[in-house]
DNA sequence: ATTAATAATGGTAGCGCTAACATTTCGCTA
DNA sequence: TAGCGAAATGTTAGCGCTACCATTATTAAT
């Protein structure tokens, strides 16, 4: 009889483990592990026996234990500014398609365009030992920048091109702003107002404005900016149109920071019987589907959002697997989509 | 000298662990653990010392190890049919807002409306020992139904009301279909065509059709169904309008399965100069913002999507924490939003 | 001052898995 | 059929943390 020293109890979730599967199959635990992780190194007959045992005992794999033991979680931390913006959803779809195919699990969070929140999220996610991190944009607060730089797993900064910590997949926002400004000038527009929502937070809209202004000023024009403090939604765009018509009677075109604002303005114009582009021309950015279904169709710049996600994922996976990359920076470009609105 | 038996090497990620923090702070590892998990049971002076040590050694918490040891991951598995549909994004936003506040991390995946894929995802997620699972809808394939039923963590089935495995937060889809059908009948419409996209996959659209048909047949009318095999997007709605006008010349209204289709049709009508609702009335489902910005505004049924997410999260958390719930089923209801389109 | 209660902290033993190394078995050649 | 290299399988020792129980410090009560 064992003496009074009773064995300690441990909360038993009492799910079968590979040890039980191993006994059932008459093999060792590591062989079960191999069937799960690298089935081709196990002889087919053995594998079959193990697989039968897995079914028989109703084994459910414990990824937490595996990740801990192998020091590799197959988690990808993904941080975007907002989940309400379809643009980021498409990026996530692109990331997801590739990561899922390769057996990685995305950990998703949104910053609400707040860099301090971003930092907090990065810290939290690091606790899960992600295999890589995908963050939106190149601007981070000081602490966040330091953490990301010191991180030894791959980091992808997406959407925006420039000096990145590690991988970089995105487009040239100032150039997109220039592109649209040049187009509008080319169509003979003068007094073009740039309208954005919360430029301080959505600073990429600010980068596009910088490009826009550069072109306008080069042609000797002012580049008025209307920075709204509401969120960038339809309603905001509608109100912005009214304000521009009231405050800038000479304006012949509005360059909106995104298609949500532009579409809101366009639909509002329609309701109010304001002629677009005759009374005022309207241009957007992103190339959302809705823009091509309104009348007049929206003139905008189409960004390859899904592609950004897919490419970023591909490159991150390559980096994780130790494959060399031709280039750390990928310019996905953009396309001027000409509708009738401007 | 130790004999030839050399000590084995283990891959060293060489990140500081609580053991190093403990030495630095002159306490035991468990005290460091307590500072991280239940700071109020540690004396403030000790806590301060530990926190300083954490900063000094640059400790990053390893959640994987913690989850394994405590058999509690604080992961919530969330499975939705699609990430391209803004409806589910809003649900996710609702879930996220509540889960994040309570320190839970969402693991997200989409089924593409495929029940076999859903089953696969459930299996995969179970490997992460989630604290709970949130799945969309009440229909699952046999294996999935069994797995979910046998699962001992909380399961929330959302969007749809009915016989659920555990928690249930959603709305009554047949009743929503009836509601709109009654409204359309009340407006004097006859020959109302129900248009959906892939009813077999988006079976909740089918449930609404069932309600719709019930009301129409009760008033002695046929309830033609046009089931499109494209995805439910603007373009599909536009094409559907053409088909209805061609194939159902007597139709006076179209009851679309969702706002994407309805909006697509509405914008198409506008482009083509088809008068809505005079030539044909259009109704939708979901109450997306865009519907209230087009002219005529869309008559639709507004579903409280964000609220479904938030409530589901609240109830799941209550269940995880062992708090009793008044009711396992929550009907979030819906609202008829009357525009000028029908 | 002494005791009893409580608060704070610590020691030990895993959680379930896999890396590293060790051993056995197999397939093939001579 | 022995012998050899490769393939398959096994043994051991953690991964970094927390549950459990034990112990020590502190406070409250007499």
Kindly list the characteristics that best describe this protein.
homodimer; 342 residues; alpha/beta; Rossmann fold; 3 domains; 12 helices; 12 strands; 16% strand; elongated; DNA-binding
Summarize the structure.
The first copy, chain A, has 342 residues and is α/β, with parallel strands linked by helices. Chain A contains 12 helices and 12 strands.
Description:
- The structure is a homodimer of 342-residue chains.
- Chain A folds into three domains: 18-61, no CATH class; 73-170, Response regulator (Rossmann fold); 173-302, Rossmann fold (3-Layer(aba) Sandwich), CATH 3.40.50.2300.
- Chain A starts with 17 loop residues before the first helix and ends in a 5-residue tail after the last strand.
- Chain A is α/β, with parallel strands linked by helices.
- Chain A has helices at 18-25, 29-37, 44-57, 63-70, 86-101, 115-126, 142-150, 173-186, 203-218, 234-247, 259-272, 305-320; strands at residues 75-80, 105-110, 132-136, 155-160, 167-171, 192-197, 225-228, 253-256, 281-283, 300-302, 329-331, 335-337.
- Helices cover 44% and strands 16% of the residues of chain A.
- A six-stranded parallel beta sheet of chain A has the order 2-1-3-4-5-11, sandwiched between helices. In chain A, strands 7-6-8-9 form a four-stranded parallel beta sheet, sandwiched between helices.
- Chain A is built from twelve helices and twelve strands.
- The model of chain A is unreliable at 1-7 (pLDDT under 50).
- In chain A, α5 links the parallel β1 (75-80) and β2 (105-110).
- Chains A and B meet through α4, α5, β2, α6 and α10 of A and α4, α5, β2, α6 and α10 of B.
- The structure holds a DNA duplex (30 and 30 nucleotides).
């Amino acid at each position: 009889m064992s003496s009074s020293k009773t064995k300690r109890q441990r909360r038993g979730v009492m799910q079968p483990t590979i040890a039980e599967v191993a006994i059932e199959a008459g093999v060792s635990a590591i062989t079960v592990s191999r069937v799960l992780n690298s089935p081709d190194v196990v002889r087919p007959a053995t594998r079959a026996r193990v697989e039968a045992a897995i079914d028989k005992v109703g084994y459910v794999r414990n990824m937490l234990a595996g990740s801990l033991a192998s020091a590799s979680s197959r988690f990808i931390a993904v941080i975007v500014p907002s989940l309400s913006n379809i643009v980021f959803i498409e990026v996530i779809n692109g990331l997801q398609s590739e990561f899922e195919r390769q057996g990685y699990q995305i950990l998703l969070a949104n910053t609400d365009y707040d860099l301090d929140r971003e930092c907090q999220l990065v810290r939290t996610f690091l606790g899960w030992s992600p295999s890589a991190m995908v963050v939106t944009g190149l601007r981070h607060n000081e602490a966040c920048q330091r953490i990301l730089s010191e991180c030894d797993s791959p980091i992808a900064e997406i959407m925006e091109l420039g000096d990145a910590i590690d991988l970089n997949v995105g487009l040239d926002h100032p150039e997109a702003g220039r592109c649209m400004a040049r187009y509008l000038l080319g169509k003979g527009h003068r007094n073009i107002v740039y309208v954005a929502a919360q430029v301080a937070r959505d600073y990429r809209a600010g980068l596009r404005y910088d490009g826009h202004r550069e072109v306008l000023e080069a042609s000797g024009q002012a580049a008025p900016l209307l920075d709204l403090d509401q969120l960038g939604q339809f309603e905001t765009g509608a109100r912005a149109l009214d304000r521009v018509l009231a405050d800038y009677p000479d304006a012949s075109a509005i360059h909106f920071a995104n298609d949500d604002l532009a579409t809101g303005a366009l639909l509002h114009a329609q309701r109010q019987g304001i002629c677009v582009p005759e009374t005022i021309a309207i241009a957007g950015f992103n190339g959302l589907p809705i823009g091509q279904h309104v009348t007049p169709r929206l003139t905008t710049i189409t960004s390859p959002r899904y592609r950004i996600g897919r490419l970023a994922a591909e490159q991150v996976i390559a980096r994780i697997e130790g494959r060399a990359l031709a280039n750390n920076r990928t310019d996905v470009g953009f396309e001027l989509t000409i509708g009738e609105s401007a």
